[in-house]
Design a protein that fits this description.
Elements: H1 6-13, H2 24-41, H3 46-53, H4 57-64, H5 72-81, H6 98-109, H7 112-126, E1 135-139, H8 146-157, E2 161-163, H9 164-172, H10 176-202, E3 206-209, H11 218-227, E4 229-234, H12 237-246, H13 251-254, H14 256-274, E5 279-282, H15 288-298, H16 301-312
Parallel strand pairs: 1-3, 1-4, 2-3, 4-5
Helix pairs in contact: 3-5, 7-11, 8-15, 9-10
């Protein structure tokens, strides 16, 4: 479950942080400044904006001076003429640079698929160095030890343990099996991507347990590799099977020969993708304590330094 910090809840009720809700003059001043700035960046005269929006020059002049109490309908026309969303005019953040406006324009012209490629390019170029990452993502098949070791690792690091499968279920309002039954793999992938992005947005520092198939979606694997320190937990096929049965999963017992063949096929399909992780840990025939000790050894120094800072404070 993802919980918003207190200030995030405040921002939901007050969409303009920093502007008092009972100060309409300040709100109108921000709105006027945004319209004036965007018009200037677009190289538009007030006359051109009036023509494209259907709002009179006189009214636009009042609006830009912070004197026009514009209706929602007229505001949407002005926003459309400026090629932005109406909500963008009401953001109280500092004045946008010309570069920010051009980047926003470019993004609006790109297809959703190209948005992903653009994000991957940016994160690859400007993401936090691996040795300083504050998120640990555990990948691997079910039975690799992600839950047990992830929980213990998060306790030692004194940070949240986030199970992406639980976030997906909460987002969908149903269990994983119901998601696949109703929406299939495509519907699950959409929810998985949304849940991952939400988790990355809300948790700057955490241990993240991921579903076993996440590495088969290139964009999601790339996102993990550019935002987290990724560790692949793995074991021998016989060990996976033993652990699944110990957890109460009776499916492998119904037809052991076919179950083992399926498991080996899945491993063969995913091993190359799993191998892209920043580090790997063989959990076969090792105790939980031993594995967690090894994880503490291989995770980034930046993560452990943060833990030390918290303890000293």
């Amino acid at each position: 479950m993802l919980l918003l910090p207190g200030n995030m809840h405040d921002n939901i009720h007050n969409p303009l942080p920093g502007i008092a809700q009972n100060d309409p003059d300040q709100l109108l001043a921000v709105l006027g400044d945004r319209v004036r700035t965007l018009r200037a960046h677009r190289g538009m005269t007030r006359k051109v904006l009036a023509r494209d929006s259907g709002v009179s020059e006189r009214y636009l002049a009042q609006l830009e001076q912070g004197l026009g109490n514009i209706s929602v309908v007229l505001l949407s026309r002005v926003a459309a003429a400026l090629r932005i969303e109406p909500s963008d005019l009401l953001r109280s953040r500092g004045r946008q640079t010309a570069e920010e406006i051009l980047i926003a324009d470019l993004l609006r012209e790109l297809s959703p698929d190209k948005h992903k490629a653009f994000l991957q390019m940016l994160t690859g170029q400007f993401s936090v160095p691996v040795e300083s990452r504050q998120r640990i993502a555990l990948v691997g098949l079910r039975g690799a030890g992600k839950t047990t070791q992830g929980t213990r690792l998060a306790e030692q690091l004194e940070c949240p343990f986030v199970q992406l499968s639980c976030e997906i279920e909460e987002l969908a309002g149903m269990s994983m099996s119901e998601i696949f039954a109703l929406s299939g793999a495509t519907g699950f992938r959409r929810l998985e991507e949304k849940a991952l992005m939400q988790a990355l947005k809300h948790y700057d520092r955490c241990v993240l347990e991921t579903p076993g198939s996440i590495v088969m979606e290139p964009s999601l694997l790339s996102t993990l590799l550019t935002t987290c320190f990724v560790v692949w937990l793995h074991a021998q096929p016989e060990e996976y099977m033993r652990r699944l049965i110990a957890e109460g999963d009776v499916r492998p017992m119904e037809n052991q020969v076919d179950a083992m063949a399926d498991l080996q096929r899945i491993l063969a399909e995913r091993n190359d993708n799993f191998a892209q992780a920043h580090a790997s840990l063989d959990t076969n025939d090792r105790s939980v304590e031993d594995c967690v000790t090894e994880l503490m050894r291989i995770i980034p120094a930046g993560m452990k330094n943060t833990m030390n800072d918290v303890q000293e404070a």
